[in-house]
Amino acid sequence: MVSQKIGAWVGKLGWVWVDGQLAQITRRPGTQVVFLTLRDPSADLSLTVTAHRDVLDTGAPNLTEGARVILHAKPEFFPARGTLSLRADEIRQVGLGELLARLERLKKLLAAEGLFDPRRKRRPPFLPRRIGLVTGRASAAERDVLTNARRRWPAVEFRVVNVAVQGPTAVPQILDALAVLDQDPDTDVIILARGGGSVEDLLPFSDEALCRAVFACRTPIITAIGHETDTPLVDLVADMRASTPTDAAKRAVPDLAEERQRIAQARGRIGRAVAGLLDREQHRLDALRSRPVLARPEVLLDQRAAEVGALRDRAARCLRHRLEGGAAELGHTVARLRALSPGATLQRGYAIVQRPDGAVVRRPDQVSPGDPVRLRLAGGELTATVAAS
Amino acid sequence: MTDVELSYEQARAELATVVEKLEAGGTTLEESLALWERGEKLADTCQRWLDGARARLDAARQERGAEPG
Exposed e or buried b for every residue in B9-39, given b needs 16+ CB within 10 A? Predict the structure, then answer.
């Protein structure tokens, strides 16, 4: 009863175009019907599809597993086993050109949404505590990342999550791996690494869901997908794009030896810089200190002493002149005095006759006989009285 | 500002002006002496700063085993 109801209800559903990836193709011998498993490329969803052999052979000849198809189908419910499947009356393989065209459209869409915005990109830590590595099991990519990282920084810690790196199961597994690593508080950078591969192989790495997941991750992500020339969309969303797995290791982890050397160099340079500064300043100070006014202050005093000395000499010289002048003058006056003074005439035998009142007698009538007079001789004086005039 | 608080640059700058004044002359004897004494003190301050810095540098480098000076 219930099955009939479901069958009826499902029967009402109309035809739909479905896009997906072929996970399995089973052709049972002897029957016209082919069973296909169709997967959603970015989610863990799959459906069985039944189609008539001719539909397959005409619509999408030599179909291989993993191919991307579009099919026109109608949901069908099989009461017998209670299964739902799609009956397809038309299948077309999505050509590579079409796929790439879709990729371009998706790229523009994501760009418009700002998923590639460099401002949103986070710088991976200089020295990560633990590196999350999402890559194929025992793949060359895994080996390259691990060996190179460890050679550069022996103490590096990894948490590897191996995933399918191509085909329909790739994206869901990578999404799970990213989720696990992103939540891990100790993992502070995640590397998504894959070796080279065909365009189809790398398609999962341009998947919209994967790009959105990478964009949403809190932990910085470094992608190293395919060869140097390959740039799947996830590369544009990631926080850092490495050209190869080895390059990813180089960017994720500093080289211990190199860092040690840089530190030593830096230390040397700052030491020399300060030492240089000290030397220069010491020289400048020495220069100032050696200036005569400081080094030999007596220079100042000598100057002044010299000035004083010079002044003193001048003063002395003036004095001498003056004295000499004075002496000379004195000499003259004395000479003149002497010349005028009667002394010389007395020497020659003359005598000066003076009256008691001191007047010099020049004529006889100035005195009368019996007057006392003074006679001044060169050698002394005499007193006399006038006998006759 | 007592000399202790003078920075190296301030002390050296003032020392330079003291030397200029003395070399320019025209100051009284008393002023010249005072200037000279000031100059000597400033020079000592500068030298102390430089010696201190040198000591700190060598000490720090010894501490880490790097070559001194």
Answer: eebbebbeebbebbeeeeeeeeebeebbebb
